[in-house]
Amino acid sequence: MKIAGDWLSAGHVQKVLAMLAGGGYQALLVGGCVRNAALFQPVADIDIATDAPPERVIELAKAAGLKPVPTGIDHGTVTVVADHVGHEVTTFRRDVETFGRHATVAFSTDIHDDAARRDFTMNALYATADGTVLDPLGEGLADLAARRLRFVGDPAQRITEDYLRILRFFRFTAWYGDPEQGMDAEGLAACAAFSAGIETLSRERIGHEMRKLLAAPDPAPAVCAMQASGVLMQVLPGAEAQFLAPLVHLDGDLPPDPIRRLAVLGGADVASQLRLSKAEARRLERLRDALADPGSDAELGYRYGAEIARDALLIRGASLGQDIPELSLNRVAFGAAQRFPVTASDLMATYQGPALGAKLKELEARWIASGFSLSREALLAEDG
Hints:
The protein is of the alpha+beta class.
């Protein structure tokens, strides 16, 4: 099998591969770039594996006029900058001893050692500079073709080496698995058995994985499996997956939105549990406020803006098992376009302090109740 793509033929990629090959070493693309290219999906990160020791990678890069940066040299990784683009070049490794996310590794010249320490079979695929795919374990290509996500070797061993792999199991299943055949039973059982290990992970890493999972086109089957296995409880106490599938259905052509999907899951202290950014936390809070607001569709649009109000309608529809009428969305858009015509300066001659704020709220309520039809003059005349 061969892969192809503009990313593979790009000059900066070929320069790094040629640098290694010119020194007499293996130069292999590995992991996600190979997997995605084989699935005809976009390629983002480009990782390269080699049997060259990291010190030799640095020497070769300098000799080729490229810039080596020892970003993770203790673990065999050197970032080689070519044409202003960084490429992570990592020496073949084998684990000597593991401690959760930390491992003692030994460098290797054997691609099978390197493949055997990777997480999933479809990620243990390599490719040469011309795109020829190598499958050292003899399982990756078949699993990829079947859209079957499986751990490399013993799932329990892979998980106890790094508990983040539990979350990656669900995330990669959502993105690359076949929903019709379900999840790998052995892998799922191991995730359930070792779910308590998630407590050892940083909240930043957990949040990063959950965002990526919820950004999948349809994360609902994977998240439901997370709940059934007890993993979701470890990640987001109090979260429920039952309304996620209806929400994905109602999402329609909207881009997948992790925050909208987090809102339908619920759960306690989500912003802290997943280390959301301030902007993400604020958006989630406003969305929850909108969900609790009994106002009309148009009023929701006015108070929260078109996007938050629309998302609140979608979540309500998902929880009630109802489609969202086009009329409701039009009302939201209408409300979002309205601007309250009275300002504080219009009332300051008569009202001050708390009384001014109360009067503004009163006039705004009248204006909303009128269907946003009362003019500034009419509102001030009523007050007079």
